[in-house]
Amino acid sequence: MLFIWPEISMFYRHAISVRTGSFLPHKLFFLPVMHNYYKLYWFIACLTVAMALFFKKNRWLYIAVFIFSVNYVFIANKATNSGDGLLNFLIFMLIFVREGATKYSVTQMVNNAILILVQVYFCLFYFLNALGKIVQPLWRNGNYFTHTWHLSYYANPSFIPYWFFNPTMQLITAWSVMIFEFTFPVLIWFKSYRKPLLVIGLFFHFGIALLLSLPDFGLTMAIVYILFYDFKQKNANNLRESII
Fold first, then answer.
1. CA distance 100 to 206
2. Tens digits of per-residue pLDDT, 174-204?
3. Eight-state DSSP code of residue 76
4. How far out from the chain centre does Cα 244 lie?
5. Around Cβ 190, how many Cβ atoms within 10 Å?
6. Which of 79, 91, 165, 226 ranks highest by number of CB atoms within 10 Å?
7. How far apart are CA 61 and CA 53, in angstroms?
8. pLDDT attached to residue 237
9. Per-residue confidence at 54, pLDDT binned at 50, 70, 90?
């Protein structure tokens, strides 16, 4: 939120011109009298997020962060990506998560249910993205990347290798992405495939963040990957090794 502060005025002017939004707070800033105070609203949003980081176990702060996050998507209409939808879903789920849950308690059951919901949502996110890609001829023949690499506001030409513009390489890249997104939702539930998939996925999203200038999307996806990693098994192995 702090990083996009310089672009706030642009987003705000866009929201005013197209009248996006619904019942969310930024609707108030469509009023002429409020046109000079939109940065104050953004400051309050940033402050609320900071408070939520330091004052944990406060459900009302988490709810406020979720409202601000959804509100941002409305303000920055058509300037967001699919990662913003996933991020909003994660923030909403965090409203119900509680730390220090005792074993076999209701709190632990709720936490486990939320974990499963996020994992399933993430898998559906991949599957539906892959389904949307494979029905498009531009993805099937690789020409999607021909258009993407020439979008100055989207691609990052400083890091795109010249061989990425090769039609054969673009075809391989397109099908590699679709195959990964189709197989991830199925194979991630098998322990033998989990680690390789997570490693491939991290490189995949690191490439997106670097080549397409989408670090927020890459970071959001990497955060969800943590939820698929079996920390309990790793701790058990470390304990076993220490005993031996």
1. 32
2. 999 999 999 999 999 998 999 999 999 999 8
3. T
4. 41
5. 9
6. 91
7. 9
8. 57
9. confident
Q: What is the largest CA-CA distance in the chain?
A: 72
d(CA 221, CA 234): 22
Reported as a single tens digit per residue, the pLDDT across 95-122 is 888 877 888 889 899 999 999 999 999 9
- At 55, the amino acid letter reads F
Q: What percent of the chain has pLDDT over 70?
A: 78
Residue 108, Cα to own-chain centre: how many angstroms?
25
Give 237's contacts (C-beta < 8 A, 6+ positions apart): none
Buried b / exposed e over 126-137, threshold 16 CB at 10 Å, is bbeebeebeeee
Helices (H), 188-230: 191-211, 215-226
Q: Which of 227, 212, 229, 201 is nearest to 89 (CA)?
A: 227
Count of positions (residues) in the chain: 244
Distance (Å, rounded) from C-alpha 26 to C-alpha 74? 8
Do 209 and 219 contact (CB within 8 A), yes or no? yes
Query: Which residues in 5-96 belong to E strands, given as ranges?
Result: none
Q: Please say if the pLDDT value at position 234 is more than 80.
A: no
Residue 220: which residues within 8 A CB-CB, separation 6 or more? 83, 86, 87, 90
